[in-house]
Design brief:
heterodimer; A: 322 residues; alpha/beta; Rossmann fold; Alpha-Beta Plaits; B: 0% strand
Chain lengths: 322, 238
């Protein structure tokens, strides 16, 4: 549906987006992830036709966003980073204005507006001035505006920013519902959001694409070494070697004792192994009392951090490129 | 050109003018100044004609037009609404034209209020109605040209004050070029004179509506609006 090929956008000589390529399939919800200043908004502005690209090509449903801008703009609903609202209008006047500019037939305007305010929970705010609305409600007006013409493609730049936790859940559900029929690109730096709503994730950093896959795939690919945290009572430090000898255990480190007579260990394991069963049986046979056993797999959050860290030794990024 | 889009933009701008005190302030100041010159002329000089108005207004417009036009695009750029507006399927020129028409309408309303003066004159003395009509046609064209230039100024920056100063400077140059023509040697002087808005206004205000003067104003308006739409957003021309 959306095809982005070698996109490049410069601000002066600074490459805000540097040779990015990816595709978004029809009906897919794509999470566009990256730290602030990574080039997410810039990419979105190029897709929507607000900025011209310096190089590369973007097509939507086969139509070039530069050559056939009017056609592609027709297909897109866009919520920019700063919610584009006319504060001197009421919610209804604003949506009506957008409907008129979008040339939605006059007899359909009311129905569409009604539908959108129902979906976004704005029905009781229709006659309120936008300047009097809270940030969360303004964001809803922005969303209603973006979906008013039932676009095939939705581009949402940080749609849940400024919302309270309940609203965030509501808006995510809303995006999920919409995403069943439409293609959605949503940018965010909130990771649970991606896991909660997106079919696929693209991570960019400093204008370059560093990862592309489903949330599960990324988790799997960048899993690294699962770590086991173990708390034991009655173990003699000389016996640590017995744990170390278990299959799958790579190394072992003693952490500060959390309480007297309790030994806390951090065990690094080989990828793809889970020696927890063996550890349990060893403890039983040795007569150690097990007070805690947890296994931690790298979260998407850590993956994100390791991929977008500013230091040049960000190893994971190199691995993807290779 | 899509008239439904032009009219949607026009309606939004009109409501925005009259929803805030700005339109009323501009109208009041406009009438106060023109009224001052009119009554001064009428009572102090005991002259019942429009000359004073038609002499002073062209220079008043150099300030008045940028004041009306400065917010048209810069405000939208600053608040972020421009990003929505130009990413909707609209032709850039339609947007610019709708905004221009809105500013022009406000200006026309201001001019409408000044009709009080010619009516007074016609009742008091034997004014030449033809020259008064010509004067108003000239004012409409001149004001339209300055508003189009101000729209260009507004498209160039997100700061309304900067937009005002920029537009004021451009309009002022067009207005005073005619005086520069006096001190410049002949072949160039003609060119400079032709470029000056004041020169063409004076031609029309003399009572002769010549197509050359009309074409000058219409092309200045069209060129400014075209440049404004390019300045509003860079993209392949549609």
């Amino acid at each position: 549906m959306i095809h982005i090929e070698n996109l490049k956008k410069l601000y002066g000589s600074f490459p805000a987006v540097d040779d990015i390529s990816f595709d978004v399939a029809r009906g897919e919800i794509l999470g566009f992830l990256g730290p602030n200043g990574a080039g997410k908004s810039t990419t979105m502005k190029v897709i929507t036709g607000y900025y011209p690209p310096n190089a590369g090509k973007i097509t939507i449903d086969g139509h070039d966003v530069v050559e056939e801008s009017l056609v592609t703009r027709e297909m897109i609903g866009y919520l920019p980073e700063t919610t584009p609202l006319y504060l001197d209008m009421t919610v209804y006047e604003y949506l009506k204005h957008v409907a008129e500019v979008r040339r939605i037939p006059a007899n359909e305007q009311k129905v569409r507006i009604k539908k959108m305010v129902d979906v976004t929970g704005l029905a009781d705010r229709l006659d309120q001035s936008i300047s009097k609305l809270s940030k969360g409600y303004r964001q809803r007006v922005g969303l209603a505006q973006a979906m008013l013409h039932e676009p095939k493609v939705l581009i949402l730049d940080e749609p849940t920013i400024g919302l309270d936790p309940n609203q965030i859940v509501e808006i995510r559900e809303l995006i999920k519902t919409i995403g069943k029929e439409r293609t959605v690109i949503l940018s965010t730096h909130i990771l649970p959001e991606v896991q909660a709503t997106c079919d696929r994730v693209v991570i960019i950093n400093k204008g370059k694409l560093v990862a592309d896959g489903t949330p599960d795939e990324l988790q799997h690919r960048f899993q690294g070494k699962p770590v086991i945290y173990l708390q034991l009572h009655g173990i003699n430090p000389d016996d640590f070697a017995k744990i170390n000898a278990l299959a799958g255990v790579e190394s072992l480190e003693r952490l500060d004792d959390p309480e007297p007579n309790v030994v806390s260990l951090q065990i690094s394991t080989e990828p793809g192994t889970d020696p927890r069963g063996d550890i349990f049986r060893l403890c039983v046979s040795q007569g150690w009392t097990m007070l805690g056993l947890t296994r931690k797999v790298e979260s998407l959050e850590n993956i994100f951090r390791s991929l977008t860290r500013t230091d040049p030794t960000a190893k994971a990024a190199g691995e993807v490129a290779a | 050109m899509s008239w439904s889009i032009v009219s949607a933009i026009w309606r939004r701008e009109m409501r925005s003018y009259f929803a805030s005190p700005s339109a009323y302030i501009v109208l009041a100041v406009f009438l106060l100044i023109t009224g001052w010159f009119f009554t001064l002329n009428l009572f102090k000089e005991n002259l019942a004609h429009m000359r004073s108005i038609f002499d002073i207004l062209p220079f008043l417009l150099v300030v008045f037009a940028p004041a009306i036009g400065m917010r048209l695009i810069s405000e939208e750029r600053k608040s972020g609404t421009l990003e929505l507006l130009v990413t909707m399927p609209v032709r850039d020129f339609d947007v610019i034209f709708g905004k221009f028409l809105a500013a022009f309408s406000l200006y026309a309303v201001a001019l409408l209020f000044t009709f009080f003066y010619p009516f007074t004159i016609i009742t008091l003395g034997d004014a030449q109605v033809g020259s008064i009509i010509a004067g108003y046609v000239g004012l409409l064209l001149l004001g339209g040209a300055y508003l189009a230039v101000s729209l260009l100024g507004s498209a160039l920056t997100e700061n309304q004050i900067v937009a005002f100063i920029l537009s004021f400077a451009l309009c002022a140059v067009l207005a005073i070029l005619v005086f520069a023509a006096i001190v410049i040697p002949p072949p160039m002087a003609d060119v400079i004179q032709y470029l000056s808005s004041t020169y063409h206004f004076q031609n029309i205000a003399r009572g002769v509506i010549d197509s050359r003067d009309v074409i000058y104003f219409l092309s200045l308006i069209f060129l400014s609006l075209l440049l404004a739409s390019r300045a509003m957003i860079q993209r392949k021309f549609l």
